[in-house]
Amino acid sequence: MPKNITFFLLLLSLVLPAASQQDGFSYIGFSRGDANSSNISLNGVAEIEDSGILRLTNETSRLIGHAFYPDRLQFKNATDGAAFSFSTAFAFAAVPEYTTLGGHGLAFVIAPSKELQGALPSQYLGLLNASDVGNFSNHVFAVEFDTVQDFEFGDINDNHVGIDINNLVSNISTAVAYYGNDGKKNNISIKAGHTLQAWVDYDGVGKVLNVTVSPFSSKPPRPLLSFPVDLSTILHDQMFVGFSASTGLLSSSHYLLGWNFKMNGIARSLDLASLPALPQPKKKDPTFVIAISATSVAVLIAIIVAAVYLFYKIKNADVIEPWELEMGPHRFSYSELKSATKGFRDRELLGFGGFGKVYKGTLPVSRAEVAVKRVSHESRQGIREFVAEIGSIGQLRHRNLVQLQGWCRRRADLLLVYDYMPNGSLDKFLFFDDESRPSKTLLLWAQRFRILRGVASALLYLHEEWEHVVIHRDIKASNVLLDADLNGRLGDFGLAKLYEHGANPSTTRVVGTLGYLAPELTRTGKATTSSDVFAFGALVLEVVCGRRPIDHKATPEELILVDWVWERWSSGRWTDVVDPSLGGNYDREEVEVAIKVGLMCSHPAAAARPTMREAVRYLDGGDAVEVPEPPSPPMGLEGNSQAGFDDFVHSYPSSSFDKLSPCSITPTRDAAVSAGHGKVGPLAHSTFSRLSRVSV
Ligand SMILES: Nc1ncnc2c1ncn2[C@@H]1O[C@H](COP(=O)(O)OP(=O)(O)OP(=O)(O)O)[C@@H](O)[C@H]1O
Ligand SMILES: *[C@@H]1O[C@H](CO)[C@@H](O)[C@H](O)[C@H]1NC(C)=O
Ligand SMILES: *[C@@H]1O[C@H](CO)[C@@H](O)[C@H](O)[C@H]1NC(C)=O
Ligand SMILES: *[C@@H]1O[C@H](CO)[C@@H](O)[C@H](O)[C@H]1NC(C)=O
Ligand SMILES: *[C@@H]1O[C@H](CO)[C@@H](O)[C@H](O)[C@H]1NC(C)=O
Ligand SMILES: *[C@@H]1O[C@H](CO)[C@@H](O)[C@H](O)[C@H]1NC(C)=O
Ligand SMILES: *[C@@H]1O[C@H](CO)[C@@H](O)[C@H](O)[C@H]1NC(C)=O
Ligand SMILES: *[C@@H]1O[C@H](CO)[C@@H](O)[C@H](O)[C@H]1NC(C)=O
Ligand SMILES: *[C@@H]1O[C@H](CO)[C@@H](O)[C@H](O)[C@H]1NC(C)=O
Ligand SMILES: *[C@@H]1O[C@H](CO)[C@@H](O)[C@H](O)[C@H]1NC(C)=O
Ligand SMILES: [Mg+2]
Known about the structure:
Blueprint: H1 2-19, E1 24-28, E2 41-44, E3 47-48, E4 54-57, E5 64-68, E6 73-74, E7 86-96, E8 105-111, E9 141-146, E10 160-165, E11 172-175, E12 177-179, E13 185-187, E14 196-203, E15 208-214, E16 225-228, E17 238-246, E18 252-263, H2 287-315, H3 322-325, H4 334-340, E19 349-352, E20 356-362, E21 369-376, H5 380-393, E22 404-410, E23 413-419, H6 427-430, H7 445-465, E24 480-482, E25 488-490, H8 496-500, H9 519-524, H10 529-545, H11 561-570, H12 588-601, H13 612-620, H14 633-636, H15 647-650, H16 655-658, H17 669-674, H18 686-695
Antiparallel strand pairs: 1-18, 2-5, 3-4, 4-18, 5-17, 6-17, 7-14, 7-18, 8-9, 8-17, 9-10, 10-11, 12-13, 14-15, 15-16, 19-20, 20-21, 21-23, 22-23, 24-25
One 2-acetamido-2-deoxy-beta-D-glucopyranose binds at residues 135, 137.
């Protein structure tokens, strides 16, 4: 009798897997095939590279990439509805833009759809969105490999693996590590960018899920996580299985190199050596290729240019629209600017930034020296709204602003004419890249302090002293220009309208520069005077310390300038942070005030920052003004003021933010919005908040 049963079961076990539609698969590298024959379904920005590596995201902000096995798999026994055992092994890597910062993460997912419609990037990992997070009708199960500590979701650190059930708050999570054969636990850093192998094994009888990670081909003897869970209630009968990855303001390239999956069995481990190699960090030395192609292209271009020239000469007059004519005297003709800049010749180039190039020019008649900023912008609407405001922007006058003299529009280009600042931008005096060191003069402390006071008063003027509130949105060292007397003058004001229009009209972009972006800005998408104050604080610290707000050449503890200054300030060792190239020649009291103001202004909670009026008062100080101690972030972040937290701050692997953990689980964004915290304006209805989420 028992013999018969055994035989029967054996037969069954041989027959059944073959009868069920699919019991496993294996990808050793991935193949793109032709357009539709790829045997893995991709969406978002996921792509299969020539090497056979599957790249889920690259190092651009706020991306989502998904890769799913194309067919549904039967995850439950149709008779009794119990979830089957399954097992999977996959090899992945996350190569971040800034090694010590990481940039969101990757997750193994079992989900009802391959698209995960409506999911958000950043801390949502491309799995869920703010409105469905935590809802048990999602039927989403994930194992996350997260490189950013997100307080909203109670992340334990910025290098963890967690089990997520319909939520991004993990049911269990732990720092990434593996057990050696000697039983010792070894830490692994996902952010180091090496290929790792992970195993996810579910025992449908014992109802336990194990997760194991290792940098090697063989499976460690002990799993990293072992979590009792009955997947029967979470999964549908048939589900898709795959991966999701996302980037936020900070980003990583997330790669998948191989993937084995087995239902009702044990997936084979991957031999990491037989998988495609990770792309090498890009090296820039294709000079001779460029030389060759340049020659041939040049000949071609010469022919085309000759042919097109006549046509354009007639067709390409400046675009003048009736409403522009009402704008007054500020309009320049294109030919005037062209001859001023000697045909926008490269030798006249002063520099280039996010929107285009800046040329030096001499106006034909007045012989006045100007800087011409050539903005190429895809959004006609953006340019239109901007030009509509130029009339009023042109009226802004302050001795610490770079005067806008006028503009010119020509097809998709907008040319902005500013006073020429002979000493260029502040960044060139503060940060010495090795080549420029000998040629630059050092700014003395007195000069630096005067520049800061100048910029502060210009910003106060924009915020409070003019008829409208003007938010600058892009305060940073390269937008502070120095005139002949080394006075600081703020440039690029009033460009906010252009920033608001991205290439895609359906998105509202928060543009700014990493390190100057206030945390609540990335959350609400709405720039405020207080987010300008944040950037001003970052600028002040930069000037004091002579280094960038985020400097990936610095040691990990010094990477984020504001954290480092905080740490030194609170331990009373603030003299450590003062730019060493000043050689100790500075006014202690002024430096102390500057550091205080810098810390106060770049406080993570908007409510704790001073206004520009207060900042100016502190800086102009004199003996009568008492500069308060900067409120320390842990204290400042109690209660409501936490509402401004977002992934950007969460990404700081910093001591000062780590201390927040106990009190810093933020309300969900909807709660924050409806409770009316922070500066969320009338735009903060759900559509807007979703847009800003997606595109910040
Ligand atoms: N009025 C000016 N006089 C002299 N040099 C200028 C002037 N305006 C800009 N520059 C130079 O041109 C460079 C590029 O300026 P641009 O504003 O395009 O870029 P950015 O300030 O680095 O970034 P962003 O696009 O965010 O403003 C600046 O770094 C500065 O050195
Ligand atoms: C996918 O296709 C490649 C070649 O086209 C093949 O080697 C691989 O086994 C296929 N994988 C699956 C899971 O179908
Ligand atoms: C791929 O599939 C789409 C529709 O699914 C079809 O329109 C397209 O022609 C296909 N391309 C090729 C190369 O087969
Ligand atoms: C990353 O991918 C996006 C979308 O595919 C693309 O627009 C962007 O240029 C890429 N960025 C880099 C740095 O390759
Ligand atoms: C499904 O469950 C039934 C009843 O528990 C059992 O007899 C059957 O073998 C199971 N099928 C599979 C494929 O495990
Ligand atoms: C959130 O995702 C769900 C699908 O999971 C979608 O139906 C819903 O519209 C999304 N919500 C938002 C605000 O995008
Ligand atoms: C969960 O999602 C379902 C369907 O999307 C919806 O009907 C339900 O109201 C949601 N529950 C909560 C608590 O949001
Ligand atoms: C996982 O956590 C959620 C709360 O986030 C809880 O409702 C659920 O019961 C947990 N599931 C398991 C299996 O522990
Ligand atoms: C491993 O990581 C944990 C948590 O991050 C840490 O407490 C521990 O000191 C680390 N161990 C080693 C050997 O680095
Ligand atoms: C999970 O790990 C435990 C040890 O922690 C082991 O006893 C069990 O067999 C493992 N289960 C699976 C499905 O790998
Ligand atoms: Mg600029």
